[in-house]
Amino acid sequence: MNSEQIYELLKVYEEFVSVKQTSDLNEFADWLKYRQFDQPDTSSNSATNDTKSIEQNNLILYLMNRFNRYFKQYCKNLIQDLNINSIDEFWLLNYVFLNKLASKTDIYQNTITDLPVGTKMLKRLIEVSLITEQPDPKDRRIRRILITKKGIKERNTVIERMNDLSKFSLGSLDESQKEELLKTLKYLDVYHFNLFRNNMFDITVGVEESI
Description:
This protein is mostly helical. The chain has helices at residues 3-20, 25-38, 46-79, 87-98, 104-110, 115-127, 149-169, 175-200, and strands at 102-103, 131-135, 143-147. It is elongated.
């Protein structure tokens, strides 16, 4: 079996895991054996085309979730000797670094962080002196967040380590594959952030009063 055939087999196996919700190899062998007879001709059957599309969508989501889990596992080692507890805390810290005097609402919305989790993470970052907060001079109900010198040093350390991690995480993708992946991810990010920002997920009610 050549590498191309192995790749095709792996794709079919991922489809099996997504559809059947099991990774049992014996079941996979049976499913593979009868698969061609189980699926009617999709060229003339719109219902089957819809089913195939749904299965493909589910497989994409399944693989995206797996990549996210891989990445979080890699990041545990990357930050284990630092003050931040998770890569999610880093993204908050990084946003504060890039956006001076950001409000808590801005931070939670732009890092896609729900209110209870974001509240706990900001409190902890304040406790370990990576960020500070101060009232907005025009509206004292709003708290503005600043990164400290210690926070800048911590952020820069993670960025340096992440440069190496990014090369490893993307495997052997060539430049054209990276460009295509980046294009797709940018589209999905804009699509979902517009939904998110337009209060499809109402996570910012009472944000400024929560800390």
